[in-house]
Amino acid sequence: MHFPKQYQINLPILDTLRECAYKNHAAFYTPGHKRGQGISSSLASDFNSSIFKFDLPELPELDNLFASQGVIQQAQELAADAFGAEQTWFLVNGSTCGVEAAILATCNAGDKIILPRNVHSSSIAGLILSGAIPVFINPEYDSKLDIAHCITPEGVATALKQHPDTKAVMVVYPTYYGACGDISAIASLTHKHNIPLLVDEAHGAHFAFHPHLPISALAAGADLTVQSTHKVLGAMTQASMLHVQGDRIDRDRLSKSLQLLQSTSPSYLLLASLDAARQQMALQGKHLMSHTLQLAAEARTRIHQIPGLSVLECHPSTPGFCSLDPTRLTVTVSNLGLTGFEVDEILHEQLGVTAELPSLQHLTFIISFGNTQEDIEKLVQAFKLVAKRYQKEHLTDKKPLWDTSLSKMAYHVQISPRQAYFAATERVMITQASDRICAELVCPYPPGIPVLMPGEVITSQALDYLQQIQAQGGFISGCADSTLTTLSIVKEVKLNEYV
After folding, report:
1. Vertex 154, ends 150 and 155: CA angle to 5°?
2. CA 137, CA 140: separation in Å to the nearest integer?
3. What pTM does this model have?
4. CA separation (Å) from 12 to 15, 74, 86?
5. Which one of 11, 69, 100, 160 has the largest count of C-beta atoms within 10 Å of its C-beta?
6. Coil, strand or helix: which one is 134?
7. DSSP H/E element including 490
């Protein structure tokens, strides 16, 4: 459905919510604070008291998220038009529930799905919930920078050839660092096999609103994309959207999947924020993003000129890195003789600047239209101070620490992540874990690519790699024992039991 632009000024949810909030009536419905009248005085003193009037349940005027026919439906239709979708669903449980629903809507137990090794944990949850079997592709990895980029069309083509019974392909676009792969080519490949392309576009909700940003997943041909409207646009935290186009997605099944995963008591504060964020971008998106791009370009140029620092740039010849979101700024600090974590602590505690993502060699910053010129100035001056203090104490031209053998590592899914999740497990010393079936996710940073997943056979090669990263200063996440002394394995299962 396409609306004339003047329709985008409408705010169906917010306007109706305002009417209900200020309606003079006796409230005998949830929530218990009754439009703020019973709210804690401590909470009321820190928040604008009027906000609690808007914390309402699914009153008749406010529609129903799971069977929308009124203001929610109207708001979702306006959002679909603004973001270039055929149909849009509002998400109040974040992009996590959208990614999970995408897998549930396309894969039955035992079905194969192709996805990159550096997927978000929500994708692993989707595999557990659905019973789907992952066919993992390693993303392209820059060993010098310790950064994983995207999977390539060639990698997808090989996986489809080896697994022609695959039911869906999922990609991460963009990555946390803002790297974008050749999503148009991947979409063409999946459609030649008549299967849907699912996109975790959590960090790319702004792409549709400016020509100097990477192409949006929908414009590139994706069948389904999930966007965290709160991450880079103006919605409240936890408020996201799921967009669909074409006929490769069963939309009824998708709706049913979302009903399994979303709250039956959705927050209208979140829904109204999605409504307002859509209106803001539909009417002012290009102007807002032009301002954002200007701020980001200034920050990138000035920080790149500081001795001892460099910024992540896109080189067209780099596999898995066709374009870069210019509003995502990644600064390499390793030549200062400090880790990204150490610089992050200095910036946050001493200089009043807080990054989005610290890693061993880098700091990543999200620049949005909520930032100001003063923010950029503070960021640049903070880096100048840190660089001046530390650059003379360190030798430059540091060699990469990490073994690139990860790209050659073999993975074998012995049982599905779902089977591993629900199986009886035990914890064993890492020296006893080889050839057993892993029961947890083990992800080293850098490079942020899981080395072991639930249901995979633990190899000595994987263990050696993990121990090498840990010995050289990296850290391990996802598993219960971050020291990697022990691992959780599936109990009493021989390798031939789940072929």
Report:
1. 60
2. 9
3. 0.92
4. 6, 6, 19
5. 100
6. strand
7. strand 486-490
